[in-house]
Design brief:
The complex is a heterodimer of chains A (57) and B (451). By secondary structure, chain A is mainly alpha-helical. Chain A contains two helices and no strands. An eleven-stranded mixed beta sheet of chain B has the order 1-3-2-8-10-9-16-17-13-11-12, with helices on both faces. Classes of the chains: A mainly alpha (57), B alpha+beta (451).
């Protein structure tokens, strides 16, 4: 798992340690849910983009 | 009182815009101390504008159904010379020099802005428990949240302080307060209504829409806000025979309060009795899409709020925690979440081969209490925030139109919302079936006690 508190200390401006410790478990939860989803992405898949006006209307 | 009723009374010369505006201001003075729905009220500006609009009507210059009707804007919409706080302390003294595009459009349609409604700080939350301006209370029970982030808008409309208020929806912020307060909320197709001049929360899924007291009023407001010339609002009698209504067999009816499920399934039965064709549909992995959406929101909102990142002490605790989380999301995870979004959008679009619209509950429960952190759905206890946004957040990523409307009231007398989804650009479908259901249920316009 990612060490969120280390990143929080390294970014500019840093996130105070006490605050970083509070949010780390939340980010752990998101990471646990998100990592397996990466297997669903085929190689070369595009990112989402907004539909052009009038499309499907 | 609805827009439709105000509009008819104005044209029949039974009332003037000045009188309607004065009544709205009077009701705000009377009930806002209870609800805390408004951050700013502009009585002098509103009455002056109403007088001009009355004079126009006298001359026969009619701007349409919103001409002379008092409305309110969420305090996220920039309003020239009227402060726009975004529900934050950081922007407490921000006075824009220009109106947002949609504020201008509504002004040109003849609407009279009476004030700016309260909200969750920076629109980043679903309860409107605002640490800077105080909590917004639910007119159906003042101990309950109004929902958010457009909580002031929904509370103001539910208590009939104004017939319409604007809202924004990034993860349910029009639809959740509408469900909790018993109003009609329309989140149109992404970018159907201009976001210019509306302070953002995200970069790729903020939606602008109206909150009203009836589906037909939502249709009128939507057309005005989108600047559409051709008005395609539901008529007096709506025919939905043969309309294919999809009912999800997975995800949307899992872990629901049994009363909510019963009320929503009754709305489905009503649609069937009106001649709609009900069919089961299977939705893609909405929980996965919701996870991707959460990650996208954290990152995008951190980008939006970056200019204020050094002013930590001025944020509410919950908003600051979300800002901190977003700053730690990696660019690769963000891009992969946008790739997943595209995959799920394509999968979801397949459903429209078998259905013209989809019915789901808005939220798994009715409005929770102020300060409540968990909700009970049957035997299951869930964290209130993810539970409340469960049927909402993924829809923002799809960018499709979604109507939240009252489907009934639970045994505690609280409103329960039905969500109607349709393909991109098909607002007319959700408004048509919504109006038919509203007529059949005959619960629109019910007033909370004490207002």
């Amino acid at each position: 798992m990612t060490d969120w508190t280390k990143i929080a200390a390294a970014i500019d401006p840093p996130i105070p340690e006490a605050d970083a410790e509070k949010i780390a478990p939340v980010l752990d939860g998101i990471e646990r849910a998100f990592r397996p989803l990466l297997q669903l992405i085929p190689r070369g898949a595009d990112v989402w983009e907004a539909r052009r006006e009038g499309e499907d209307v | 009182v609805t827009i439709t009723e105000c509009s008819a009374a104005l044209r029949a010369k039974k009332v003037s815009s000045v009188e309607l505006t004065r009544e709205a201001i009077h009701r705000i003075e009377q009930y806002n101390p209870k609800l805390n729905a408004f951050i700013t009220v502009v009585p002098e500006q509103a009455l002056a504008r109403a007088a001009v609009l009355d004079e126009e009507l006298r001359r026969g210059a009619d701007r349409g159904p919103l001409h002379g009707v008092p409305i309110a804007h969420k305090d996220l919409f920039c309003t020239k010379d009227v402060r726009t706080t975004a529900g934050s302390r950081i922007l407490a003294d921000y006075v824009p020099t220009e109106d947002a595009a949609v504020v201008k459009t509504l002004d040109e349609a003849g609407a009279v802005m009476v004030g700016k409604t309260g909200m969750h700080e920076f629109a980043y939350g679903i309860t409107s428990e605002n640490p800077h301006y105080g909590p917004i209370r639910n007119p159906w029970n003042l101990d309950l949240v109004a929902g958010g982030s457009s909580g002031g808008a929904a509370a103001a409309v539910a208590a009939a302080l104004v017939p319409m208020a604007t809202g924004t929806d990034t993860g349910g912020s029009i639809r959740i307060p509408s469900a909790f307060c018993g109003t009609v909320g329309l989140k149109p197709t992404y970018e159907r209504i201009s976001r210019r001049g509306v302070l953002p929360l995200s970069l790729t899924f903020d939606h602008i829409g109206p909150i009203t007291r009836s589906v037909r009023d939502a249709a009128i407001s939507f057309h005005a806000m989108a600047g559409l010339q051709r008005v395609d609002t539901p008529g007096e009698k709506v025919d939905v025979r043969g309309l294919r209504v999809g009912v999800p067999s997975n995800f949307f009816f899992d872990n629901l309060d049994p009363e909510v499920e019963g009320i929503v399934r009754n709305a489905i039965a009503v649609a069937q009795s009106l001649g709609a064709s009900i069919r089961e549909v299977r939705v893609p992995d909405m929980a996965a899409l919701t996870t991707a959406g959460w990650l996208l929101l954290l990152a995008e909102a951190a980008t939006v709020l970056r200019p204020f990142v050094e002013r930590r002490a001025e944020f509410g605790r919950d908003t600051l925690a979300l800002l901190d989380q977003g700053r730690l999301i990696s660019a690769t995870d963000y891009l992969d979440a946008q790739r997943l979004r595209k995959i799920f959008c394509e999968q979801f679009a397949e459903i429209w081969k078998d259905a013209d619209c989809i019915f789901t509950p808005c939220t798994p429960t009715a409005a929770p209490h102020l300060g409540q952190n968990t909700v009970q759905t049957g035997a299951i206890t869930q964290d209130m925030r993810p539970a409340t946004t469960r049927f909402m957040r993924s829809i923002n990523l799809l960018g499709i139109p979604s109507l939240a409307m009252p489907a009934g009231f639970n045994t505690a007398g609280l409103p329960v919302g039905l969500q109607v989804l349709a393909p991109h650009g098909k607002e007319a479908i959700v408004l048509r079936i919504g109006a038919a259901i509203e007529d059949a249920l005959a619960i629109a316009g019910r007033m909370p006690e004490g207002f």
